[in-house]
Amino acid sequence: MIDREAVFRARVQESIEAARRLLDSDALALTAAAAGRVAVCLAAGGKVLFFGNGGSASDAGHLAAELLGRFFVDRRPLAAVALADTTAAMTAISNDYGYLEVFARQIRGLGRPGDVAVGLSTSGTSGNVVRGLEAARELGLVTVAFTGASGGKLVDLADVCVRVPSEDTPRVQELCMLLGHTLCEIVERELVAAA
Asked: Are 166 and 156 in contact (CB under 8 A)?
């Protein structure tokens, strides 16, 4: 039988070590830059489109909810959409155009120049996230990516590519959510202070 507590301790230690590497990386400065882009977009009446697959889809929904609802303080709702939460659109687009187009098609329909498209992919190679950022770039949206250490194909597609210093999927997702939460905090604080 496995030592369950030992497994928990090992994973917590891995997470701590990954967070320490994060402190020594450029991910903090890049996330601060992304927060600035999001704040400018929302202050100008634009919107933020979040998207990803699997756990990253849930993380995208979580971050959109923090902006649309509230993070720490009561304030006006901020325009944020998680594209994977649109079940009818996801399934219709997948059926009619293929799964690679599920985000790109929504971005073409919803995105406007100056909006921000935020793609989450632990590998940086998810085909539909790549296509989504390509579509966003073509339309003049600001493109942001949260990904693992290599960055994959998203490095060349994002105006701001935040690469967390890990290739271990659970650690990448944990660090991306830490950075995403902090981005939401900064955006909220800046917009409330400006109101």
From this structure: no
C-alpha dist (Å) from residue 37 to 40, 44, 47, 118, 184:
5, 11, 11, 11, 12
- Contacts (Cβ under 8 Å, ≥6 apart) of 75: 188, 191, 192, 195
Please, which residues have CB within 8 angstroms of residue 92's CB and are 6 or more apart in sequence? Answer: none
**pLDDT tens for each residue of 170-186:** 999 999 999 999 999 99
* Collapsed DSSP state (helix, strand, coil) of residue 111: coil
Four-residue CA torsion sign, 169, 179, 117, 133: negative
Burial 26-56 (b: 16+ CB within 10 A, else e): ebeebbeebbebbbebbeeebbbbbbbbebb
Domains of the chain (ranges, CATH numbers): 4-194 (3.40.50.10490)
3-state secondary structure of 112: coil
Tell me: the pLDDT tens digits for 48-87? 999 999 999 999 999 999 999 999 999 999 999 999 999 9
- 49 closest CA partner among 164, 142, 150, 140: 142
Note if the pTM is more than 0.85.
yes
The closest alpha carbon to 124, from 162, 97, 94, belongs to 162
β-bridge pairing 142-147 and 160-163: parallel
